[in-house]
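Fig. S4 source data, part A: sequence.
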Amino acid sequence: MNARRRKGEWLEWTVKRDVHSIEDIREELVETIGGRFLSKLNRSGGIQWKGRRVMLRLFPEETLQYEPEWADIEVLYEDDFSLVVNKPPGMKVHPTREGESGTLLHALGWHLESTGQRCRPRPIHRLDEDTTGPVLAAKNEWAQYRLDEAMRDKRVERIYVALVQGHPSDNSGMIDAPIGRDRHHATRRRVSRTGDAAVTRYEVLERLRSASLVRLRLETGRTHQIRVHMSHLGHPLLGDLLYGGRAAGMARQALHGDVLMFPEPLTGERVQVRAPWPEDFAALYEQLKK
């Protein structure tokens, strides 16, 4: 299939031959949009054809899940299927209690509504409330299906930078240590033999005064994974009082999502998005360099 373009709620494709039934194009459709979603789309009347034109209803109008609220957020990337936004510190990705407002989903709703888009944002992954950086959201159900699939297959890559206490003995390494709940603390996690598998790779980018700038890559996505693993290594994040880090002039842990890479849902092309450092992280880095 080729010559794909959006027309309102529909994605139009031009194929090489006339289509008389869905069986004529089933193999190509399964390869492109997935068999499970294809069946669902077909049952709802979301597949039409005429001659060589095939129409898929991938962009149905939707109502927002939460009341839209303006917030000063930066959209780093956007297309018909997804968007990436630079989450500021102190903002949750989604509400965690009834009636809660001020989350990233509220802000994304504002962005979509104010730009005339009748769709619902669906976050593909999360960041801690006080961690900054890019968050990927799907703009329709099919895009969520494809991006969730990419997450499971580890084709969504997240690279972080952190300012950690002290100087790791090795310039790079892998932390392979399962993470579970701390039964003595409601929100704290800890390395535990009975926890969930967790793997973090780290690389020291720069050794600063009493601290290090470290790049981190996640192979799993456990709650507080980087914070727990770096504390376990003996080098907690600066400002991370929950995991043994010292106060360092930041009102949060010194952790920022630096780069996000993911496959574009329709074409599979690799998209790379970099998020600029927030002011507090950059200021602490400059202070430590002196």
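Fig. S4 source data, part B ends here. Helices lie at 26-33, 35-43, 104-114, 141-152, 225-233, 279-289.
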